[in-house]
User: Fold this.
Amino acid sequence: MARTEAIKQGWIPRPGRVEGISLTVTAAVAVLSLLIGLRSYALGAVVGGVTVIVNFIAIRMVVGLLVGGGQTKGFTVFVLLAKLAALALLVIAVFAFAKINIIGFMIGVLGVVLVIIGESLRGTGNGAF
Assistant:
């Protein structure tokens, strides 16, 4: 199936306002960290921000499958647990092998979480929140 068909059917969510603003905030934090000379913080912020954005998109995909009625609830729960396990393994691998700065990572995560909270309080009206 072509990607455009998957998007039309709602299996792949279109990038929304949250993703765009989150990428902007992540980039701004990384550039600010680089400007003040903290390369490890910048790399950690980028990895943390991108990880949370990818997780957010994956959750939207799974919720789209559940709401669309295309799959059973048991399968959807299995997919959510598999996604959670994959995310946990990814984060563990990043910290174990890539030696990412944990404070920078948390700053990147926090930036995206604040965008998600802000957009949900704002009431985007696009069905995401």
In short: The helical segments are 3-8, 17-35, 39-68, 73-98, 102-122. The chain has one domain: 17-122. Residues 12 and 95 are 29 Å apart (CA to CA). Residues 39-68 form the longest helix (30 residues).
